[in-house]
Amino acid sequence: MSLLVVGSIALDSVETPFGRREDVLGGSATYFSTAASFFGPVRLVATVGEDFPAEHVRFLEERGVDLAGLERRAGRTFRWKGRYAFDLNTAHTLETQLNVFGDFQPELPAAYRDSRYVFLGNIDPDLQRRVLDQVKAPRFVACDTMNFWIDSKRESLLKTLRRVDMLFVNDAEARQLAGEHNVVKAARRILGFGPRAVVIKRGEYGALFFAGDHVFSACAYPLASLFDPTGAGDSFAGGFMGYLARSGREAPDVLRRAIVTGSVLASFAVEQFSLDRLATLAHDEIRGRYRELLQLAHFDELEADLFDGLRR
Amino acid sequence: MSLLVVGSIALDSVETPFGRREDVLGGSATYFSTAASFFGPVRLVATVGEDFPAEHVRFLEERGVDLAGLERRAGRTFRWKGRYAFDLNTAHTLETQLNVFGDFQPELPAAYRDSRYVFLGNIDPDLQRRVLDQVKAPRFVACDTMNFWIDSKRESLLKTLRRVDMLFVNDAEARQLAGEHNVVKAARRILGFGPRAVVIKRGEYGALFFAGDHVFSACAYPLASLFDPTGAGDSFAGGFMGYLARSGREAPDVLRRAIVTGSVLASFAVEQFSLDRLATLAHDEIRGRYRELLQLAHFDELEADLFDGLRR
């Protein structure tokens, strides 16, 4: 497999009802590539400043993340500061310091240009297309976005959407992008913008997948130990794309397993701060939680004679 | 089967973003018994005033709802006025006129006392126990409640919970009752209060079922046509209890099918105002949507060789 991700690498300061951490490893490309690394190598394109700790570089290297596309520049690393209230579904941004990420111009090393699977993390949609322009013949392209780009760069985002196979968004982003409150109608409208498929992430409630008339509803793993939701969406996308690239097919049953796998990776990611839980995660645990979800969501057909002899 | 419901019969005035209706048929016992009537007869205990239209009585009779327990008293029928904003998950109560429901003292006709399945709709927990006192040997008792009773009659509610097999609540009620934000922990605490099982209804997100260590996550049917959420919870409970009473067993697989059936009935109920959609619903449609949910939620096991040759 050849899976490419472009996105942010950040130093996050996070407050949740359960504690706080300062300047811990974060960023969309970091969560994505760590989650995807369970399924094979990942090629990363991102930028960090001079202050980026060497231990974080080692962490990614040791996971088989190809850092040929990691640019280290003069200046400070992107920093994000956020707070989660008891409703852990929504992040409240306290501070954003773009630093070297502010004028990030993603450049693909020559060896990356044959990448077949591409994940465009949540960056300026102009830059998302700039990355696509550098990939020769992608087989499956997915992208993420956020309210900021939907609002401020809508036309550019729509251009990007015409070139991707799948969009990952949350409920609120889907509604904003489609201008439609009902999530089913919103998904249909988004499919009209170009992507073959859209995944609507709903945090602790699971995810809905739409592709043509095909709909899949994945329940989330009911966590008693939700700790820090940062990176859940990118871990979801990483698990999804990692599984997809490993599988090499995009049949409906494969996409469904990819979504559940994404959900499993996200459920682990939020159990501890930063990448702490993904750092210790093992293949057996991924498989075990996937099996739990199979059990959790299983139900049988109705009895054939259920309504026999009843009126109506 | 012998399924008993006690609850309200109301004349509702409802505003949604899609329209409004004045003095239409509503109430927990009404939605419950209509939904349950697809699976067999239902015994109803409720009260209405002199102004209650004869056509509504006929509607229930024609569905096989036993009205021996329907008390008609001097005065006006219970009235509820509510509004739903674009977030259709939450009702904003504009006005409540208890009228004859205000001093409702449920009395079971002698013929109801052998009821085996009992649903205690959302009424004063003192009255819920008063009903239980009149049932000889119930096999399965479920109850509903709301923030008002959790707040103002907590001790009485806890007494009721010690006598029921299953509690139906929504997310917010579960959190309030348990004093715990995490829904998994909240469910566990509620099980400690007495019920063998708890269903946490999450509106458009589905439902979670907890019984001991057994957990089931049911996705909701993704509706493009959600119109009026009034009665969704009681239709859910009606579909659940109707199916359960029809089946005559409480094995885990039966309870799971009952939950999905409840979800199907709720999904139809909200497609139109009042009881309008349930009034025209057919067995084949219930079966059809159940099958759609089976498809919607289905995914396969992970490949046995998925992680072969990968590090970690």
What does this protein look like?
Two copies of one chain form a homodimer. By secondary structure, chain A is α/β, with parallel strands linked by helices. Chain A has a single domain, classed as 3-Layer(aba) Sandwich (UDP-N-acetylmuramoyl-L-alanine:D-glutamate ligase), CATH 3.40.1190. Chain A has helices at residues 28-36, 54-62, 125-133, 147-152, 154-161, 171-178, 183-192, 232-247, 252-269, 276-280, 283-297; strands at residues 3-6, 10-16, 19-26, 42-49, 65-73, 79-84, 91-97, 117-120, 140-144, 166-170, 197-201, 207-211, 214-218. In chain A, the strands form two sheets. In chain A, strands 5-4-1-8-9-10-11-12-13 form a nine-stranded mixed sheet, with helices on both faces. In chain A, strands 3-2-6-7 form a four-stranded mixed sheet. In chain A, β6 (79-84) and β7 (91-97) form a beta hairpin. In chain A, α6 (171-178) packs across α7, α8 packs antiparallel against α9 (252-269) and α9 (252-269) crosses α11 (283-297). Chain A starts with a strand and ends in a 15-residue tail after the last helix. The model of chain A has no long low-confidence stretch (mean pLDDT 96). Chains A and B meet through α7, β13, α8, α9 and α11 of A and α7, β13, α8, α9 and α11 of B.
